[in-house]
Write a structure and sequence with these properties.
The complex is a heterodimer. Chain A is an alpha/beta fold. Helix content of chain A is 36%, strand content 18%. Chain A has a domain of 135 residues: Thiolase/Chalcone synthase (Peroxisomal Thiolase, Chain A, domain 1), CATH 3.40.47. The chains are: A alpha/beta, B mainly beta.
């Protein structure tokens, strides 16, 4: 089976980007990816945009971005699966190349979230869950993960200190990431004392809305080798699954079953297992989400995720380094961009370009990108030659 | 009138619209498939098992076990005026689950996963429009029911 590889990456600064429009953010990461791949726009056959439309005033964003990049008349389209939109864009790019329709496809995750006024944000926040039976009681995005956290604490003895330890780790690495929104370490005490959001979460258990874009360029094997040589990183395993949006029909309240299913598919396709993963970027939208990801991805046994972080097994030098770029927690979470940002990070890790955050001898890496409160999950496995 | 259901309602149109009429009368209704007999809560018009669109409402006790909960401080639009509120997820005795506010009969320190709770139908008293909802209360809590339940068919 011929492979599909990443030949170029670009990553803009995340944060409150009051200096740029969403097209300009997209341009910034796209231009960087082009120059990283050392190719020109004419070499690219199509552009897939990962973004969540309700945050942007410009409707049908893909066309506006394609115009701003001067990529017309090449095809473009948008993928939307909430916070996993970026990974969905990568999956459709992979499918487009695999089908033979295209040979080189660029993927841009881009999101501008800070243009909305607070009332608009609060209104969107109130419709995260299932609206017919749940949102009418004022459920929120943190509220759902908080309910998973309380159940996890009840069943497995996970503690608030273990939750906070995730935030401490991710801020520790985020402080070394120039693209992160918050480049500052935090203490366990500060996390535990942070303002309440939804019990057991304080503000430091939650990631922040952000603006930002990231881009990757994918190519079929022959083209990838010709363009990138031994710098190419192969996307060898793809998994994708769903679970219910409604917690009223959710099979598990202590894990994201779509993640378990998606990772099973990706491991099988790539011919590797959890122990082979040298570095992972996982969807830590809330501290409990990273703990559940350790378990859902098989980095540790079910229920042991809290101990995994308490024992620093997800730090550099631990069993499986996780989110050593700072994660969503420290980088910020421009929702449509996040999956592409994760991909940029693991490609850099596999190339050996991460400096003080570099995982030694990294040859297999994983991204885990969850949409909404788990209704979508995409797991991708990348390998060095 | 399903738009009666909830402090804010996002789903005015649904085939289970009479759910809210029953709730106003003090009855909590799940659904039962007329073809295969599958019962569930929340009610749904279309059977997920046999795909039949033919259903009837089916009264349930509202007794259940607390699966998990949270206390929300950062509230979204429409809920900021009620301050901090507690949300609980109930595993219903007759099957299915229900999400609601944890009511005043349960003290701050009394919320425990695994505790038994009773769903109690409620009407907002101080709104001009009819607004119905329910809360989770101590087992044995009673409430008013209309003498005759509404028609049991859609
Ligand atoms: Zn049926």
């Amino acid at each position: 089976m011929s492979r599909i590889g990443i030949i170029g990456i670009g990553h803009g600064k995340f944060g409150r980007r009051s200096d740029a429009s969403v097209q300009e953010l997209a341009f910034e990461s796209f231009a960087e990816a082009l120059s990283d791949a050392k190719i020109e726009r004419k070499d690219i056959d199509a552009t897939v945009i990962g973004a969540v439309p309700e945050y942007h005033k410009q409707r049908s964003l893909a066309g506006a971005i394609q115009e701003y990049l001067e990529m017309t008349p090449k095809p473009t389209w948008l993928t939307e699966v909430a916070c996993a939109s970026g990974s969905a864009a990568i999956r459709t790019a992979w499918m487009g190349i695999k089908s033979g329709l295209h040979k080189v496809v660029s993927v841009i995750g881009c999101q501008k979230m800070t243009e909305l006024q607070t009332p608009e944000i609060l209104a969107l926040m109130g419709r995260v869950g299932e609206v017919q039976w749940e949102s009418i009681f004022g459920t929120t995005f943190p509220g759902y993960y908080a309910m998973f956290a309380n159940r996890h604490m009840h069943e497995f003895g996970t503690t608030k200190e273990m939750l906070a330890a995730v935030a401490v780790k991710n801020h520790f690495y985020g402080a070394m990431n120039k693209k992160a929104m918050f480049q500052k370490e935090v203490t366990l005490e500060k996390c535990l004392a942070s303002d309440p959001v939804a019990s057991p979460f304080g503000i430091f258990d939650c990631c922040a809305n952000a603006d930002g874009a990231a881009a990757v360029i994918l190519a079929e094997e022959e083209r990838a080798r010709a363009i990138a040589g031994d710098r190419v990183v192969w996307l060898d395993g793809l998994g994708c699954a769903t679970t219910t949006m409604s917690v009223l029909r959710r099979p598990s309240l202590t894990g994201i079953s779509s993640a378990t299913e998606a990772s099973k598919q990706a491991y099988e396709m790539a011919g590797v297992g959890p122990a082979d993963i040298k570095v992972a970027d996982v969807h830590d939208c809330f501290t409990i989400a990273e703990i559940m990801a350790y378990e859902d991805l098989g980095f540790c046994k079910k229920g042991q995720g809290g101990h995994f972080i308490a024992e620093k097994q997800s730090y550099l030098g631990g069993r499986t380094p996780v989110n050593v770029d700072g994660g969503l927690k420290s980088k910020g979470h421009p929702i449509g961009t996040t999956g592409v940002s994760m991909t940029v990070e693991v490609v850099k890790q596999l190339r050996g370009d991460c400096g003080e955050r570099q995982v030694k001898d990294a040859d297999v890496a994983l991204t885990h990108n969850v949409g909404g409160i788990g209704q979508y999950c995409f797991v991708h496995i990348y390998k060095k030659e | 009138m399903f738009e009666w259901f909830g402090k804010i309602n996002f789903t005015p149109h649904t085939r289970v619209t009479e759910f809210a009429d029953h709730l106003k009368d003090g009855y909590l209704m799940g659904s039962k498939c007329r073809k295969c007999g599958f019962e569930t809560y929340p009610p749904r018009a279309d059977c997920p098992k046999c795909l039949s669109p033919d259903f009837e409402f089916n009264e349930i006790s509202g007794q259940g076990t607390l699966l998990t909960h949270t206390q929300i401080t950062a509230a979204p639009t429409g809920f900021q005026d009620i301050g901090t509120y507690r949300v609980g997820l109930l595993d219903l005795k007759e099957g299915g689950r229900l999400l609601a506010w944890i009511g005043e009969s349960i003290g701050e320190d009394e919320v425990k996963i695994g505790m038994q709770l009773q769903v109690v139908p409620r009407i907002f008293e101080d709104t001009p429009d009819i607004k119905v909802y329910y809360t989770l209360e101590k087992p044995g809590t009673t409430w008013n029911k209309a003498p005759k339940p509404g028609a049991a068919t859609p």
